[in-house]
Amino acid sequence: MELTTLWFLIVGAFLIGYFVLDGFDFGVGMSLPFLGRDDTDRRVIINTIGPVWDLNETWLIVAGAALFAAFPEWYATMFSGFYLALLVILLALILRGVSFEYRHQGKGERWTRWFDRFIFWGSVVPPLLWGVAFANLAQGLPIVPMENGGWLYEGTLLTLLNPYGLLGGVTMLLITFTHGLVFVSLKTMGEMRERARALAARVGVAAIIAGAAFLVWTVVQHLGSPTLWVIVLCSAVAAVALIGAWAANLRGREGWAFTGNATAIAFALLAIFMAMFPNLMHSSIDPAYSMSITGAASSQKTLELMTWVAAFTMPLVLAYQAWTYWVFRKRLSRDAIPAAAH
């Protein structure tokens, strides 16, 4: 396998890891106004992700750094073309992270309520806009090559808000919401667990419908693609996993439901990456203007060095993250929340 293809898959793996892990963080944040009947409930919900949410977000940083180093032209074109959407995502993530730390500062109920709203909206906006962005990457964008090298995005933010892109955003929003609700039921006990499981069952139906529509639309758009069979296979696995997760949740098997949702997110994103392949960005103006993997990649020496670094560091990162989840594996309850604690 060529190093350019290998690093396309590695960047994709980093992004999949981010959406699987930070995806349930987003879902937990979205659940606050629906599951949190009082401040103690909301503190239980937040504490389910308290030890891990910032660790989960580092996957985005690693993915961005790998993207910049391995495919600088892809990084430059995508970040300049999506800069308004990415700026909104960044502000939402900052607002959300600050709210986790400041909501418990003891300034009164009004203070706490405002930061709870920030957590909610800071959890809604990123998956919605990420879904829009990745749907547009699969569909194609108005890009043209420049005379001095590189590619230029000729659209605007409104260009991204097309029906297919919006469906991708809604699908990502619903799946991460369901993912987070299942995580809450996995990490809590008693009434909170049952409420989360019941809401996950209802939201899961909407996620299945939206996901099926998005994946079918994706397959139809790429009927002539050389990777069509891979797109179909990944879409089928994602659909089966999402339905299986919903069924497992109904039976109270939160662990299997969480695994199913994670699998669905991973294979849905893999279907999008395969819809892009063998390019990084399809041009909706002229297929000849598309950004190829080799044309956007760094030098062979750079990719070789990055491969050795990744081979050494990634097992350590994965081991540390697995250990963290193992340490904080126990369920939470209202009784475990002291009156003056976050």
TrEMBL record:
Pfam families: Cyt_bd_oxida_II (PF02322). Keywords: Cell membrane, Electron transport, Heme, Iron, Membrane, Metal-binding, Transmembrane, Transmembrane helix, Transport. It is a multi-pass membrane protein. InterPro entries: Cyt-d_oxidase_su2 (IPR003317). It is found in: Cell membrane. One of its GO terms (biological process) is aerobic electron transport chain. GO terms for molecular function: electron transfer activity; metal ion binding; oxidoreductase activity, acting on diphenols and related substances as donors, oxygen as acceptor. GO terms for cellular component: cytochrome complex; plasma membrane. Its main location: membrane. The keyword Metal-binding applies. The chain crosses the membrane at residues 6-32, 74-98, 118-144, 164-186, 198-220, 226-248, 255-277, 305-328. The keyword Disulfide bond does not apply. It comes from the Bacteria. PANTHER family: CYTOCHROME BD-I UBIQUINOL OXIDASE SUBUNIT 2, CYTOCHROME BD2 SUBUNIT II. NCBIfam families: cydB. Belongs to the cytochrome ubiquinol oxidase subunit 2 family. This is Cytochrome d ubiquinol oxidase subunit II. It comes from Leucobacter massiliensis.
